[in-house]
Amino acid sequence: MGQITYDIDMLRSFSTGIALGSYARAADRLGRSTSAVSAQLKKLESQSGTPLLRKSGRGLELTDAGETLLAYAHRLLALNDEAVAAVRGTDLQGRVRLGLQEDLGEAVLPEALGRFARAHPKVRIEACVATSAVLREKLALGQLDLAMFWDVGLDGAAPHTTSVLRLPLQWIGPADLAALDAPWWQQLQKLQRGAQSLQETLPLVVVDAPCPLREIVTTTLERAGMPWRYVFTSSSLAALWAATSAGLGLCVRTQFGLPGHVRTIERAGTVLPALPQITLALRSASSEPEPPVQRLAELLTESVQENVRDRLPAGRDLRLLAKA
Known about the structure:
alpha/beta, five-stranded mixed beta sheet, 11 helices, 21% strand
């Protein structure tokens, strides 16, 4: 068998179809016909010498080979796009004043900054890691060009804002829940077994005020008739993770960027109430940002989506509409 060289356009169609859950939508996104995208998929399977998709109910899902190829496709496309940006953007200069929340800085910033710096070495980035309230204020004062933060709907349809993704808030506890012998946790365990009332108040680990999550959590608990109290507050997310890991109480965040010493608590079989979703927003200071700002915004969005995608089983429950 001769050496196989995958075509970038075919990999992009394959990856886009998986990401959008439909090859019809992928065709529309890529400016191609559905039949052309289907033909690309057939050629990709022919090159691979094995099926990449299999029937699942009324749709299709990835085979093991498809999952493997998808992982490589993400890497090849990222490298290709980085090379294109580097060639086209060698003359980009200036600075970007970037704002991020702490969990985003740890999970997204290294990857996005590495790719940006390699493609645009003449652009200087000034990063500010702060709470969403501080980032909003700095944007309003013209002290930031771009900011990414969790938005709980306080601003409504704010100008120059893009919704990157939506994730549900989660109850967060220590990684080793089985070893937790705190009275409040034991009481929750009893409630799971049929007890009628919570004698221990639920301890909460929260960010210092002002923080919109505090009101969301306490309102949710009060509606559920569950008593609560603050046991630990801090402006540092690392400090919140340390307190949660030590078993002082429960924290509420999304699953995005969680460190290894804490974990989400599955609500199935518990009395913990459901929490709402929040939006990860990307906001620029201008409706027409400078090219360096626009490019960094694109890389941040890609890094977030890849981070979340890598934590989900590839190809599960996708309704891929490519026709045989």
